[in-house]
Amino acid sequence: MFGLISDMLANDIAIDLGTANTLLFVRGQGIVLSEPSIVAFDRTHKSVIAVGQAAKAMLGRTPGNIEVVRPLKDGVIADFDVAQTMLRELIARVHPRRRIVRPRIVVGVPSGITQVEKRAVREAAMQAGARAVYLVEEPMAAAIGAGLRIQEPGGHLVVDIGGGTTEVAVISLSGIVQCRSVRTAGDEMNDAIIQYIRKHYNLLVGERRAEEIKLALGAQDGGRQRPRTIEVKGSDLVSRVPKTITMNEDEVREALYDCISTIVETVRTCLERTPPEISADMLDNGVTLTGGGALLTGLDEIIRKETYLPVTIAANPLSCVALGVGALLDDIDLLERVALDD
After folding, report:
1. Which CATH architecture best describes the domain 154-184+260-317?
2. How far apart are CA 125 and CA 97, in angstroms?
3. DSSP 270-297
4. What's the pLDDT score for residue 97?
5. Closest to 139 in 3D by CA, of 293, 272, 309, 288
6. Contact indicator for 274, 177 with CB cutoff of 8 Å
7. More confident position, 23 or 127
8. 27, 192, 212, 238: which sits with the fewest CB atoms below 10 Å from its CB?
9. pTM above 0.90, yes or no
10. Looking at domain 2-140+321-338, which CATH architecture does it have?
11. CATH classification of 186-257 is 3.40.50.1390, yes or no?
């Protein structure tokens, strides 16, 4: 009886704790919040100024006393105190403290997470107001969120390209059969674009602008007679004055070549280590792309050419992990099967 009352009084929460963005899913409501995983605080007064989108808008534009921090690196907590502050603020937005019972929280984490990193995530969620914390590997959550039938005895290959990590996993019977994780993902792609522009144009651009270039032109295969272009504004490294150049999609594809190659090689390695019975299923089920990196133009075609497998981009690639951990709030049996041990 008490358990039933508790469920009525507390709205359980599922969190996609991503390097680039954090999404919150509230049971019975769906995804209610999506914010950049960024915190801005005043070092002089030791106070938080902004969390999420408001903090992202400050990147590269702050005076000396204000620091903008990304508490997660490569998919895991790099700054515990700042991550705890961010979680507490975001959870408070969707679960006010006036509620009688604290919520259960399910958090999506990278598959290669260590015991120390697990403990950091659990403690951060508990300190932010949870009464119980479950950790679920992101590839598993992404597969559930993409609508794959993970409980059946058939192999599914999921490639989840986030901000800090790319997770490649073969899933069957509600378990991960084979998994490879590489810390080459959205952030490294942004850095590759920054370095390319610096090398070829002596122009310095920020992370936000690099991300805009990546999403606008992406990894599109050549074949157009007139490649798409974009104007890029930055600071000239020689004269130190503002400058504008024009980049085309061929240049962006060249800048991203090494990152894309690493992801494709990770997919191939995962396939090579998969049992032959499950590998045969891939011919029918193919590859499912999730995460923000799935939006890169032409990436699905590149993987298709390299693996000879059908490739599908999930319907809501940015939301797959959040939708997956959110679905587990209503299926406690499956949650207990896929949740990581303490």
Report:
1. 2-Layer Sandwich (3.30)
2. 14
3. HHHTS-HHHHHHHHHH-EEEESGGGGST
4. 61
5. 288
6. yes
7. 23
8. 238
9. no
10. 2-Layer Sandwich (3.30)
11. no
